[in-house]
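Lay summary

Proteins are chains of building blocks that fold into shapes. Our project writes down both the chain and a compact code for its shape. Here are two examples, one after the other.
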Amino acid sequence: MSVFPYSGYAGKYLRVNLTSGAIQHGPLPLEWVEDYLGGNGIGVRILWEEVAPSVNPLDPENKLIIATGPLCGSPIPNAGRLEFIAKSR
């Protein structure tokens, strides 16, 4: 059982570096959950902070973020959404 105060969130996220194969997980900041709506909002926040405006869409510095919302896995119809977030033209 999660001690994360918001239902639907596990309280952590996973980072995978496809170049080096390194895998790490970290805590999901509470302010992200409070300020941004679902996996799409949190994914765009990560993209905004970590990808410079000068990065082209096909550059290795670009990130591909795969995120689900807090209702994913629930019995609510059409709640199993999955977002792929990356910088494009």
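And here is the second example, written the same way.
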Amino acid sequence: MPAELSVLVFGLLAAASWGAADFSGGLASRSASALAVVFASQLLGIGVAVASALVRGEFSPTSVDVAWAAAAGAGGGIALVAFYRGLAGGRVSTVAPIAGVLAAAVPVVVGAILEGAPGVRQLVGIVVALAAVVLVSAATDEDKLPVEGAQRRSIALATVAGLGFGLFYVLIARVATGLVFWPLVASRVASLVTVGLVAVASRTAFGPLRGVLPLVVVAGVLDVGGNAGFLLAAQAGRLDVASILASLYPIVTVLLAIVVLRERVGPRHVFGMAAAIVAIGLIGGR
């Protein structure tokens, strides 16, 4: 498969997996502690990643690879807790896109510094993709309420999550080409430790997961799938292109919110989704 096509396919697979995982995790966090949901999903992810690495026959990572992956996992764990708490306390169609825009911006800037500016067509595609996520985040007229209390807190959590996800993209992409699942094991171990420390520091009890365990399982498995897709995309091409494609995941999250939770959709949401299709064509076309 040509490298350009590989980036497109794996990047979009990452977006689809992450979007569905975040919807599942966010929905579970409405009935259970976000810390408990993240901890359980990351623990499950370790098992999935180990099994996948063994089946794939991956070579062992170096200590440098493990360090990059662990740093990514620590930041990603904090980001995921913030994201799930934001989804639990606010509108999915607002929180998810805010996080998505920031998550895309960090690696785009870093990628431009490390690899130089992308081609004109891909650069236009990146701009259109960012615009698509912003449009999808547009609230309907009924939702334009004063930003107070829980809404303000959700936006703040989405901001923390977006910056953390962007940092995860940059750090995890530093592992050696060919490695996918062993680095994800290291990142999840670091994420578990980080989430555990956050729970202790905040004196937050995990609490039971009865009734939401299926959602946690879906979130854990699909999160590993999204991470694997992003790593394969980043290894096949540019960091900024892989990141911007993977960062279209809020569109999947919002679509699921519209279908499952009956959240309202306005004209700007539709234009945003159409813009995403245009962006994909620009980034992946010849």
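What can we say about the second shape? DSSP finds eleven helices and no strands in the chain.
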